[in-house]
Amino acid sequence: VKEEVELALKKHLANMKRNSEKEVHFPESRSLQLQFLNNLSLPVFTGARIEGDDSTIKVALVDTLTGQIVTSGPESSAKVEIVVLEGDFDGDESDNWTIEEFKNNIVREREGKKPLLTGDAFLTLKEGIGSVGEISFTDNSSWTRSRRFRLGARVVDNTDETRVREAKTDSFIVRDHRGELYKKHHPPVLFDEVWRLEKIGKDGAFHKRLSRESINTVKDFLTLLVLDPSRLRHILGTGMSTKMWEVTVEHARTCVLDKRVYLYCPPGTQQKSGVVFNVVGQVMGLLSECQYVPIDKLSETQKAYFPYHIRSFVSCLLFSYIIFLLCL
């Protein structure tokens, strides 16, 4: 009987402890915030769709205490608005801000202009994640105090008392669409027009100088850079500083060359020996009795063989006496 009493007493005390813990247990508070899941694809131009760096822009609702996306509850299907913010809107040192501070940094269109954002600026979260629709800017960012914009995201029609902190992207510049027509290519490709290179403006002085010498593409530029760099430098003239020249040449050299090669065979070799060049005239190696030797494997004596044949090769280019091979 004593043992039964002690067992019953233990159960009673355990139940009291559990009930006591329930009474003093407070529900965990949540700290909710919208977040952009990916960065914007730059550069951004007026009239062009604003996209993420890998896909469409995605927004998520996150519990900042756990770092997890909120996939259930009324907030997980909230309606979200995308707005334009001042580029210098940072919040305080802990990247915090009030609702009013966020509202005060929303950028509106200039007087007499169309709404700054056009397209579908609203989205609905599904299990805490939503994709931004097709939106674009109608105006550039040059007239704002920082000359930059940010995108912001905020919950609309929030009937719950829980504060959902807004999201913002990094700041970025929005340029007029006409600038896209003149932008440089990184990296350039062989048949890009030569003004796609850095420091050579479309229809500018350097572009005109090059055009007069029939240097119209990046391939033309690279070919002369390999075969006669001093002539190329002379064509561009003293208006192009040494620093500008270095920037242009460095950019041109980032061009990805294709696998085409040329073989120049001196007269009398029956195409068994010759010099192998790439598509821009750079020496790749030597063909000796039908055996290809890369340039880094050649002796100094063999390398001394090149200058004469390079000149012969250029002459043959002029008169179209080149044997063209694919992927030697």
From TrEMBL:
The Calmodulin binding protein C-terminal domain, residue ranges: 261-305
Cellular component GO terms held in the UniProt record: nucleus
Residues annotated as domain Calmodulin binding protein central: 190-255
Key words of the record: Activator, DNA-binding, Nucleus, Transcription, Transcription regulation
Record's subcellular location: Nucleus
Domain spans labelled Calmodulin binding protein-like N-terminal: 32-177
Single GO molecular function: DNA binding
PANTHER family from the UniProt entry: CALMODULIN-BINDING PROTEIN 60 A, OS02G0177800 PROTEIN
Protein name in UniProt: Calmodulin binding protein-like protein
